[in-house]
Amino acid sequence: MITIRILHESTIQTLPVADLSTINVADLKPGALVWVDMMQPTKEEEQMVLGSWFPVHELVRADIARALRANAEEQLHHPKVEDYDGYLFVIVHALRPDEDEDVQLSIIIGANVLITHHEELLHAIDDLAVACEHSTKAFRRGPDYLLHLMLDAMVERYLPHVSQIEDKLYALEESTLDNPSQQCLQEILAMKRRIQAMRRIVVYTREIVNRLARGDFDLISRDESFYYRNVYDHLIRVTDQLEATRELAMSLMEVYFSSTASKLNQVIKVLTVISTIFLPLTFISSVYGMNFEFMPELHWKYGYAMVWGVILSVAIGMGIMFRKRGWLGGR
Amino acid sequence: MITIRILHESTIQTLPVADLSTINVADLKPGALVWVDMMQPTKEEEQMVLGSWFPVHELVRADIARALRANAEEQLHHPKVEDYDGYLFVIVHALRPDEDEDVQLSIIIGANVLITHHEELLHAIDDLAVACEHSTKAFRRGPDYLLHLMLDAMVERYLPHVSQIEDKLYALEESTLDNPSQQCLQEILAMKRRIQAMRRIVVYTREIVNRLARGDFDLISRDESFYYRNVYDHLIRVTDQLEATRELAMSLMEVYFSSTASKLNQVIKVLTVISTIFLPLTFISSVYGMNFEFMPELHWKYGYAMVWGVILSVAIGMGIMFRKRGWLGGR
Amino acid sequence: MITIRILHESTIQTLPVADLSTINVADLKPGALVWVDMMQPTKEEEQMVLGSWFPVHELVRADIARALRANAEEQLHHPKVEDYDGYLFVIVHALRPDEDEDVQLSIIIGANVLITHHEELLHAIDDLAVACEHSTKAFRRGPDYLLHLMLDAMVERYLPHVSQIEDKLYALEESTLDNPSQQCLQEILAMKRRIQAMRRIVVYTREIVNRLARGDFDLISRDESFYYRNVYDHLIRVTDQLEATRELAMSLMEVYFSSTASKLNQVIKVLTVISTIFLPLTFISSVYGMNFEFMPELHWKYGYAMVWGVILSVAIGMGIMFRKRGWLGGR
Amino acid sequence: MITIRILHESTIQTLPVADLSTINVADLKPGALVWVDMMQPTKEEEQMVLGSWFPVHELVRADIARALRANAEEQLHHPKVEDYDGYLFVIVHALRPDEDEDVQLSIIIGANVLITHHEELLHAIDDLAVACEHSTKAFRRGPDYLLHLMLDAMVERYLPHVSQIEDKLYALEESTLDNPSQQCLQEILAMKRRIQAMRRIVVYTREIVNRLARGDFDLISRDESFYYRNVYDHLIRVTDQLEATRELAMSLMEVYFSSTASKLNQVIKVLTVISTIFLPLTFISSVYGMNFEFMPELHWKYGYAMVWGVILSVAIGMGIMFRKRGWLGGR
Amino acid sequence: MITIRILHESTIQTLPVADLSTINVADLKPGALVWVDMMQPTKEEEQMVLGSWFPVHELVRADIARALRANAEEQLHHPKVEDYDGYLFVIVHALRPDEDEDVQLSIIIGANVLITHHEELLHAIDDLAVACEHSTKAFRRGPDYLLHLMLDAMVERYLPHVSQIEDKLYALEESTLDNPSQQCLQEILAMKRRIQAMRRIVVYTREIVNRLARGDFDLISRDESFYYRNVYDHLIRVTDQLEATRELAMSLMEVYFSSTASKLNQVIKVLTVISTIFLPLTFISSVYGMNFEFMPELHWKYGYAMVWGVILSVAIGMGIMFRKRGWLGGR
């Protein structure tokens, strides 16, 4: 699906796809801006936009195409920014929090053109579209400002997402303390991997935003540099939160092992208590299994009953003592 | 309850609610300032202030209303700052340390107007009210300065609160070392959750204060920017303290597990000592349970007594040895 | 005891207490400076200085008076700085390292006046007094510079004190590894609490110094701001050291538990070795306690001796094997 | 192999080695630039370039020669930068990620000359060569800019390499949790050593880049300083990632030990369960091994069968109970 | 031994000690410079230099003299810098890496004079001497620049020394994992103490270099300030490395305890296996020790042999099962 928005005399119009060919990029006046958003485009649509209307380098198209295959084979391209003749090519990863996954968002910005390509509905794109409906302010500041808005919208979602991960970890901690099952361990590992993935995206995005902020590219005006710095600072705060969350996940691992060990030791304690009760009893009975000629007790009438009495008293005595000291079970 | 304060020729007057309608916001001269504080306002009061006197966007009123429900359902709105036409809408969380909870404070600042809304008595509001009674200095610097004062007063309470949490953790550590009960664990978890909540509020508040400080909003004059930076720095120091406290809470978890394990191992040691004493005794008696034809001891007159003697000596000997080595109990 | 120093035509004179009333604060020329140091003043002396000579607010006197009670009830006032009309009131905590405690130092600075109040001999005061004897340089730069000197002298003692705590922790580590007694644990906890107290003082002092440095107060000239920043930087370095020390103390806790567990496991190992030796022996003897009709060994002449032989060989053989493997004791 | 590239009237020519002697370094005009890349040069080639064409200090040649031996004896020279008369000598370590090793890259830069020496194909050199084929822009900015490009290309590869190490660690964590074998431990240790090596290279490279950035050397123009600062910032981000990875490796060690202990305790639990079942049984049978005269059970016809019944019921009962509580195996 | 170097018309001459008295400090022209290096001076030499030629304060001489005693009693003076009339007195600690110890280096710098005092050969002094032989550049920049060179040379040795400590720790880790002996623990503790000592020196040196860098002293020209800042930055990087190394040493402690516990648990497992094999055997034999009248097996001809058969099958069966599960030994 292709959506075309064009700034026309201080209003933003949405054009039908067919009209794209009527716009000549070279003829666009300074201040004009065309945004072409491709969501799951067909091969023909892609060829039309990136082949004929705004022809880009073969490598750029290959990288964009990869987004599709990547989703299937689960190997996204690293976020990057590349400076081509007359346009800038940016790959970033946007969050799809509901599914705990990231999707590729490819962006091309030219002097008066913004082209976005993605395989799924993205908040960053939606937010930008909504902003455009409300006001032409953003549009009038050029594609570099729109790029910043998209990045900002993307980064804005990171912090709540990290908070969400944190909440899950705290819930996981409680269930781990309660019953440290294998499933808990699997979930902890899954969370750790999720955090690692997040951290990597943030690190690479920081690299990109840093490059955009430091004025390496002619297409990013120096005035916007300040906005990219804000995004960068935001990313640093996200990193801080992620670090804390990572530590939490790491400590959760220890909680799991400690909890497992604790449960196990409880079991061993109970077993040891049982052994400890029966050993003296066996000793007593083995005493009267001795074959000495002169063992007066053996000939008493109530000797046997007496021994049972002793055995039971010892058993009950130890049982009471252990219970009193809380050695018999529970915690 | 609604409290209205107005700066009038270098004095601050408190007006009756009824007089609010006599003030026309549009007619206020530069330098004039009206502060309307709503604490648990009725629906009518709210309508009067935010509906007719200073009409705000529907969404703002919805967010403010949510504070009420939030308190009930325990889900506060994330702190945020939003730029509307002619006014700024800020939601922050203030501490209610005595109850270990946070409450929502909604603030609207216009060119000459400050409106605050909260469901409970708040220190930040009290402090501002007191400051206004003493001097008109703060009032004369405009609503953006008053906002900064409120935030400062709020943040000022964070550090002592963190210190308090720290004190509790140290007390908890001692009781955990003494007797690592389930209740200790529950309290540790509660403290961890409290720290996490605090950290999240601080992080979100930092985001807001950062945005206020960096001059994104026209209603915050550049001169006040410096003051917001101070608040921001203060928040960073609070974050540092919270980090230390969080680490403390995490280490407390380890103390709990170590302490539990230590207690348990003591028990197992004592049980093992008992087993170790009875095994040799059982061996001795089982020796004389053997049925060999030629076992001279069995026919001795005092064989049986002798065996008891040996058994008792071994038992007592081991008991003494274990006691001497401190293996029998205590620590 | 009250000590009065006055800068008089480029010399510093120490006046008798009685002469205080001859000095009129309002008449002091710019560049003049009077330093009144009160150590454990009587109620009359205090009244004379803070009541008639340099009258201060009731609250200030209450806070100063609290220092006395605080020492008794062990609850010091938080360090703070307050701006009054015509003077600045500062409360800081000075170290009394020999006793591992902190005492309150109250400071009032006016345009030409410095008043200090403390209940004990303090290095910070001594250092300033010594500096004044040597040169009038410091005095001539005004009370704000003297305040900075006092804070600097105070902070200067923090780093060696932290180093001292660190040394004690390392000594404690060694004794803990050697013999992890309850007393070690108590000392570790005491050290942790000491570090926490230090950290809190440093954090609050940082807040104060930060406020003094950032030019919030008219009585602190902007030129001195730079010096306060130095003190602040120094405090940050102290914080870093404290963090490292805190981590050390935390790890010491783990060392204690690991060491305890290690000792305990050694005991359990030895006990288990004993059990393991006696179980096979008991098995052997129980074999010959069986009542089969056809057990040839029972009727052999040397059957009994032979069994003893087997028992002893097994016992000695296992003993040798365990000793060889180092399972019998030591480490 | 020697490759010679020369900037000639805005084109870059690759000269045959024989022509090197035709270029007189002293005659090179400002703006001209010769890059001589030596890969595994013969002794004669080295003598030709560094002996006659661009004569360098004996020590420089010794350090370069050491790269060869170093590869054999596995002891690379520390990265360093040295200022000689008329040229700068830099040693850095480049990654050879496929083999998890680092190789020495020696660089000499003069006013119009860049000489590189390495024993293997390096990405940093390739990238520079490719860049030169595409455009003369880089060449025209002089050897100091080329040096920066090489360092940048080198550092660019660090981050993905660290990510790769991280991935391996996560895979290792899973296999360690599954089966904590000795081989896992060996791999963890190998990863730790790899990370340590990386960290050291990064630290030393930071020192070099810092010196290049701060304008210590006349041959690095102040304008390029900014680019070196970027490389430095990049290195700091790499350091951050390495720190996180190092912590991960450290925690993996704990996972290994916890996992080992957990497996072992499972075994001990099962063994203890077996003991605990047999002890009561032995007690029962030993009771009927007693020699009392009056033990009615002994004379019952089905006494023996009954005892077997009791023994089996106890054994089965305990087995069922233990299984129900999950004490018998698995996790 | 005293070495005197004097800058004389753009050459540096080494004077005989006797000629020292011919130089009049007061007569030295601006730009002239005398460096007096005292290594293990006799009392007379010291008196000659610091008593008559360049008279310094009594306290300075006492502090210098303390270096000697300190080496004996192992208590070095804290690094410090003091401003005297006409000269600056600096105490720093230099590394003697070969012996893992630090020695005091006392430095006095005047307007045209540099006096150094040390008890042993020091790299920092050697490096400076070598630098002076090669060029007069450094000498011509005055004593403050020479001081910076010495500090730089000193600090330059810190990083490789830390790397060395790190290498030792990694080697120690491997040997600890292999065989966690008491000696390993001793070495770990020694390393920790070494790191702590290093850290303390670095912290104190940072304080000094910071004071020198911030322009507190008139004898340090503002132009040199920049160089001291470089030394300071270098020290911060050393601190970072030390922190990582410290963490490594701390984690090593845990490795030691985990490794000890692991070894011990292996032993306990093997012992438990032995017990677990013998308990069922003892049960079987005790069954046939019962005295029931009607136990058919007792009267069978091959009953006894049969029991032995059962016992051996059970023992061998369990042995095989345990071996198969890998419970019998090794890891």
- The overall pLDDT of chain A, averaged over residues, is 84
CA-based shape of chain A = rod-shaped
Spans where pLDDT lies below 50 across 5 or more residues of chain A: none
Order of helices and strands of chain A: EEEHHEEEEHHHHHHHH
Give the structural class of chain A: alpha+beta
Biggest interface and which pair forms it?
A-B, 46 and 52 residues
Q: Strands across the major sheet of chain A, in which order?
A: 2-1-3-7-6-5-4
Main β sheet profile of chain A = 7 strands, mixed
Number of beta-strand segments of chain A: 7
Q: Proportion of β residues of chain A?
A: 5-15%
| Rg of chain A (CA only) | 35 Å
How many separate helices of chain A? 10
The helix content of chain A, as a percent range, equals 55-70%
Straight-line N-to-C gap of chain A? 62 Å
Oligomer type: homopentamer
Give a structural overview.
The structure is a homopentamer of 331-residue chains. Chain A has a seven-stranded mixed beta sheet with strand order 2-1-3-7-6-5-4, sandwiched between helices. In chain A, helix 5 packs parallel to helix 8, helix 6 (158-178) packs antiparallel against helix 7 and helix 8 (222-287) runs antiparallel to helix 10. Chain A has helices at 43-53, 58-73, 123-134, 137-140, 143-156, 158-178, 182-213, 222-287, 296-299, 303-324, and strands at residues 2-8, 11-15, 34-39, 80-84, 87-96, 101-109, 113-118. Chain A is 61% helix and 15% strand. In chain A, a hairpin with a 2-residue loop joins strand 1 and strand 2. The first copy, chain A, is rod-shaped and about 125 Å long. Chain A has 331 residues and is α+β, with helices and mostly antiparallel strands. The interface between A and D is large, with 52 and 46 residues.
